[in-house]
Amino acid sequence: MTKLTTTTNLTNPDAVYAAIIDAHRDLTDEQSAAFNARMVLLLANHIGDDDIVLEALNAAQA
Amino acid sequence: MSEPEFKALYQYGYARSPDQDAPERPHHPVVVVGAGPVGLATAIDLAQRGHPVVVLDDNDKISEGSRAICFSKRALEVCDTLGVGEKMVQKGVTWNIGKVFQGEDQIYAFDLLPEDGHKRPAFINLQQYYVEAFLVERAGALANLDLRWRNELCAVAPGEDLAVLTIDTPDGRYEVSADWVVACDGARSPLRTMLGQEFVGKVFEDRFLIADVKMKASFPTERWFWFDPPFHQGQSTLLHKQPDDVWRIDFQLGRDADSALEKRPDRVMPRLKAMLGENTGVALEWVSVYTFQCKRMAEFVHGRIIFAGDAAHQVSPFGARGANSGFEDAHNLAWKLDALINGKAGPQIIAFYGEERERAADDNIGNSTRATDFISPKSGMALTFRNATLDLARHFDFAKAMVNSGRLSKPTPYGPGGLNTPDEDDWANSVTPGSPPVDAPLENDAGERIWLLDALGADFTLVCHGCDVKAAMPADMRIVTIGRNVTDSLGLFAQRYDTRPGSCLLFRPDQYLCARWRHFDRDKVIAAQQRALGFG
To answer: Is residue A33 assigned to a domain?
Structure first.
């Protein structure tokens, strides 16, 4: 059974997207990669459901 | 074939004004600088309200080159009040659907008007020169609108209660003074420069080739946007239909493109052939290479000089927020100036024009900036995220919503507060005070279809659901009673505004909702109207 939400779940997706891009401004590629890794770990912990995280890992293979 | 020239499509000609022979400096209540869509809309609105208006323009022709092509539902509703909406819709190409492609595959489609029961469509495409020609024609029918071609503003002396303008003509210079000057002189506004006002914001480095081409083609009347199409790899392309078999095609060129080279027909034609096929007969109507900017003035109101349209704010074109927001500026300003000149409004009302339309400019610039950043990512990581979004959009709805090829122009809500009275009753999800109107179909006495927005007057209108309050209100308040002089047989008005018998809605002269109540209370209606007039 799928538990990962893949329909729109943010109030203002454009603003969140812009904030993510903005967070990478002035970072080197290495710093950006590290930033992304920290984000993934933070969000995975916030989700708090192992199955959903595993499902997301699968979905990101796209 | 040589490089296309900007041909004059309409030529109007200079005529000497009696002002130029006046023994003393003539004075006018309102002078509008610039006879583009925004200046003409402002002038027509004010003239229809009975004010004498002078419009100055440094040119005397409307040129080829389509410039703005997408006119929004809200702009058409504004143009309906100016007497040109129907002409625009008749001539224009109506569209509601947009499609986004990546490579050869469609990844996303959107319907900008997914429900029936609106007089106007989400958008029409129409060359700006037609819009200007319709507005000039309408202006010519108004005896109190004095449109002066080849009258170039060359100096302004702002005063506390008026401004003195020096105007250059083929017959030499003359001066006039005006109580109010509305500056609609475009993105490079000479008037803004004369006042020493800055125009600050963001300049995007990517260059875009914009071509209007004439061809017989069978693409549907939809907005088609490609990321990385096979015919223009690594860049984006936009295709849009206009009247007269003219199509607007935008090619993203990247940062290092040579503008002079790229607009040469021998460079443009191979791009078109790659996109449209070798055998499609294509003629270039107009071509140009642009970079885009998002900028605004810090304040739109400077004493007696008020800025509107591109002179006040400039956006990149993804989202059609330039000309459309300019029409909204004009519509927001005209009734306020009218009320102030007639002594019916508080002196602060013009500051509220600034507050409301500066908020709208931020909304438009925000949307336009985000779209431009998505289309032309500024860093390697931004490109990685953009491409990740496109990849995910093939499988997941949430990512489709993040794909940003331009968020198309919608009127900005001003919110409750300011001129708009906050709710004191409970309302379900519906149009809130300070929000732009939502149209709805109604029927008149004879059972004929009419539209809510046409039923609203040029002044404040109180729309009551089933309760006849005419006797209780001042004679100059327009009253529309649903269930008496008009009917809502489809129930769409009641649904969109969450009305029940007894509900009353007060609309401003620019059709924005400014207050609503579950039960009629004369004093509250008058208080809300006074607040909207700047006495709050």
So the answer is: yes
Nearest CA in chain A to B397: A7
* Mean pLDDT within B405-428: 95
Inform me whether the C-beta atom of residue B9 falls under 8 Å from chain A C-beta atoms. no
Q: What is the 3-state secondary structure (H, E, C) of B387-425?
A: HHHHHHHCCCHHHHHHCCCCCCCCCCCCCCECCECCCCC
Report pLDDT for A62: 65
Beta carbons within 8 Å of B426's beta carbon, 6+ residues apart: B518
Nearest CB partner across the interface for A17, out of B369, B394, B402: B402
Q: What is the mean pLDDT of residues B483-492?
A: 94
Give the pairing type, strands B207-214 and B246-254. Answer: antiparallel
Check CB contact under 8 Å for A18 and B373. Answer: yes
Q: Does some domain include residue A38? A: yes
Provide the strand spans (E) within B73-206: 93-95, 97-102, 105-111, 123-125, 145-148, 152-158, 163-169, 172-183, 200-203
**Contacts A7 to B, Cβ<8 Å:** 397-398
Type of residue numbered B177: S
Report the number of distinct structural domains present in chain A: 1
Residue A11 lies in a domain: no
Residue A42: pLDDT over 80: yes
Using CB atoms, pick whichever of B370, B396, B397 lies closest to residue A14: B370
> Confidence band (pLDDT; 50, 70, 90) for B36?
very high
- Judge: B373–A21 Cβ closer than 8 Å, yes or no: yes
pLDDT for residue B3 is more than 60 = no
Confidence of residue A1 (pLDDT cuts 50, 70, 90): low
Phi, psi dihedral angles at B101 (to 5 degrees): -115, 150
Contact B385 A32 (CB under 8 A): no
Report whether pLDDT(B5) > 80: no
- Provide the residue range defining the domain that includes A61: 27-62
* CB contact (8 A) between residue B367 and residue A18: no
Condensed to tens digits (0 to 9), the pLDDT of residues B51-95 reads: 999 999 999 998 777 689 999 999 999 999 999 999 999 999 999
Q: What are the chain A neighbours of B377 within 8 Å (beta carbons)?
A: 21
- Cα dist. B236→B249, B254, B279 in Å? 11, 10, 23
Q: Tell me whether residue A13 is in a domain.
A: no
| Dihedral angle computed from the Cα positions of residues B363, B414, B313 and B83, in that order, rounded to the nearest 10 degrees | 120
Q: What integer is the mean pLDDT of B352-379?
A: 95
Can you give the pLDDT at residue B108?
87
Identify whether the C-beta of residue B311 lies closer than 8 Å to the C-beta of residue B188. no
Mean pLDDT over all residues of chain B?
A: 94
Q: Does the distance separating the beta carbons of B373 and A14 come in below 8 Å? A: no
Which chain A residue has the Cα nearest residue B372? A18
A62 and B392 within 8 Å at the Cβ level: the answer is yes
Size of interface A-B (CB pairs under 8 A): 54
How close A60 comes to chain B (CA, Å)? 8
CA distances to B236, B268, B424, B446, B526 from B472, in Å: 60, 67, 21, 26, 11
pLDDT digits (tens, 9 = 90+) for B132-142: 999 999 999 99
Q: Judge: A24–B407 Cβ closer than 8 Å, yes or no.
A: no
